[in-house]
């Protein structure tokens, strides 16, 4: 059973650019969540998509956006990059129904903004 | 809103020592509680979970008991190994907000031979 796949694994951008990260969930999982991990702020929830709809949203500015496709694959986009956006972006998938929300994480996309 | 507080790290132990990492939470309703572990260069992976009060989650020698009266979910292991060196995250998923999980800040454990 394939795990959660995130691409790209590493990328370097400059301030003002935009970036798109991709996440392929485990087959059969309908929920995809995105988290930002930094040494100072820990693991911060960005948003969660379920059946192509944003179901939950964290406290991030509008520069951070996402979407989910009919095959449950998800993308997140960060526009007008700032130095503080440098982080490990983690995607996690789950079945998304009621009950315990067990997450399966990808290895992450490490973004460096120069 | 929901929140999770973990004991601050880092924690350094000798091999075969006893491990406790404290975790307390604030949530409405009856959340499910989790411990995730992150090894260097990897994403998080589920270590154990408990879905109702007094449940004990266990895996790979690690245990945690869901204590509703103290809103706690402390992680314990009787004898740690060098291979247990990793970052440990306590987390909850709320009963009233399916799909959103809240994480603690993580505790870095280093086990020395």
Short description:
The complex is a heterodimer of chains A (114) and B (113). By secondary structure, chain A is mainly β.
What is the number of beta strands of chain A?
A: 11
Q: What sequence of helices (H) and strands (E) makes up the elements of chain B?
A: EEEEEEEEEEEE
Mean pLDDT of chain B: 93
> What's the number of helices of chain A?
0
Radius of gyration of chain B from CA coordinates: 14 Å
User: What shape does the CA trace of chain A take?
Assistant: globular
Structural summary, described in words:
- Helices cover 0% and strands 53% of the residues of chain A.
- Chain A has strands at 5-7, 10-13, 19-24, 31-38, 42-50, 53-57, 64-68, 74-78, 87-94, 104-105, 109-113.
- The model of chain A has no long low-confidence stretch (mean pLDDT 93).
- Chain B has strands at residues 3-6, 11-14, 19-21, 23-26, 32-38, 44-50, 56-59, 62-65, 75-77, 86-93, 101-103, 107-112.
- In chain B, the strands form three sheets. In chain B, strands 2, 5, 6, 10, 11 and 12 form a six-stranded mixed sheet that branches. In chain B, strands 3-9-8-7 form a four-stranded antiparallel sheet, with no helix packed on it.
- The N and C termini of chain B lie far apart (41 Å).
- The A-B interface holds A 4, 6, 31, 33, 35, 42-43, 45, 48, 50, 55-56, 90, 92, 94, 96-108 and B 32, 34, 36, 41-46, 49, 51, 89, 93, 97-106.
Key descriptive features of the protein:
heterodimer; A: 114 residues; mainly beta; 7-stranded mixed beta sheet; 4-stranded antiparallel beta sheet; 0% helix; globular; B: 113 residues; 6-stranded mixed beta sheet
Mind sketching the topology for me?
The complex is a heterodimer of chains A (114) and B (113).
Chain A: E1 5-7, E2 10-13, E3 19-24, E4 31-38, E5 42-50, E6 53-57, E7 64-68, E8 74-78, E9 87-94, E10 104-105, E11 109-113
Parallel strand pairs in A: 2-11
Antiparallel strand pairs in A: 1-3, 3-8, 4-5, 4-9, 5-6, 7-8, 9-10, 9-11
Chain B: E1 3-6, E2 11-14, E3 19-21, E4 23-26, E5 32-38, E6 44-50, E7 56-59, E8 62-65, E9 75-77, E10 86-93, E11 101-103, E12 107-112
Parallel strand pairs in B: 2-12
Antiparallel strand pairs in B: 1-4, 3-9, 5-6, 5-10, 7-8, 8-9, 10-11, 10-12
